[in-house]
Amino acid sequence: MFGRRSTSHHEEEKNPEQITSKVNELKAKLGPIVGRNAIYCSDACLKRYLVARNWNVDKAKKMLEETFKWRSIYKPEEIRWNTTSLENQIRHLVYLMENALLNLPEGQEQMSWLIDFNGWSLSTSVPIKSARETVNILQNHYPERLALAFLYNPPRIFEAFWKVVKYLLDPKTFQKVRFVYPKKQESVELMKSYFDEENLPSEFGGKAQLEYVHEEFSTLMIQDDIKCAAFWEQGEKQHHIVNGYSSAVVAPE
């Protein structure tokens, strides 16, 4: 249920040769990269950080180095399904992000988020401190991963929470947020334009009838955990002799 890939204005300004030049310039600024950072720093990854910083190489370098520090401490690639809990919601969110990225189709860099507000209330909402930490992680350590965020049927009382949270978002992220109200025809058409009705669950206006079975879902997530571990293990072996540079290629838009 991924949304259509959105192309930012900044990406449109760069042709493939310019993109490659900027990526190579950022590589040179960073110098040799070793270990898991080398696996993380594919050319597509470097491009995302450049886009997030409006192609400013120095700012992209600083942003990426902050991510290196965060990943070395947080170790998101080591979080597993049976070690997370909904009580630690931020860590669980990071786990889900890493899992989603692992399963993106080849060549796809962004995803759309469909956020269900059923049962939401101010009493069950996350504290502002947690919201700030969440926004910081998603914006600064997963840049340009969001195509669009659909907030599905938020209650009127959410407006008070949103008035605070929206100021934590950078302008580019803010522009990617869409409010969806199932009783409004405009919202119905919006969902149809971004999601395949046949695969979209009925509770979101689609035709798919899905049933959540925890045991089956857990089995799938554990399989993904095995795939994740293999990905990083294999990557470390490959990058051990590549002098710190990823061999991934930037796919021009």
Describe the protein's architecture and organization.
The longest helix has 26 residues, at 214-239. It is globular and about 55 Å long. A three-stranded parallel sheet has the order 1-2-3, covered by helices on one side. 51% of the residues lie in helices and 7% in strands. It has a single domain (9-239), classed as CRAL-TRIO lipid binding domain (Phosphatidylinositol Transfer Protein Sec14p, 3-Layer(aba) Sandwich), CATH 3.40.525.10. It contains eleven helices and three strands. The chain is mainly α and 253 residues long.
Q: Number of helix segments?
A: 11
Question: Biggest β-sheet: count, sense, barrel?
Answer: 3 strands, parallel
CATH superfamily label: CRAL-TRIO lipid binding domain
How many strands appear in the DSSP assignment?
Answer: 3
Shape: globular
**Backbone CA Rg:** 19 Å
Q: Would you tell me the structural class of the helices and strands?
A: mainly alpha
- By CATH reckoning, the class would read Alpha Beta
Gap between N and C termini, in Å?
21 Å
The total tally of domains equals 1
Q: What's the order of the H and E elements?
A: HHHHHHEHEHHEHH
Give me the side-by-side strand order of the main sheet.
1-2-3
User: Unreliable runs, pLDDT <50, ≥5 residues?
Assistant: 1-11, 241-253
Write the CATH fold name. Answer: Phosphatidylinositol Transfer Protein Sec14p
Q: Judging by the overall fold, what is the CATH architecture?
A: 3-Layer(aba) Sandwich
**How much is the average pLDDT?**
88
GO molecular function: phosphatidylinositol transfer activity
InterPro entries: CRAL-TRIO_dom (IPR001251), CRAL-TRIO_dom_sf (IPR036865), CRAL/TRIO_N_dom (IPR011074), CRAL/TRIO_N_dom_sf (IPR036273), PI_Transfer_CRAL-TRIO (IPR052578)
Pfam family, one: CRAL_TRIO
Protein name: CRAL-TRIO domain-containing protein
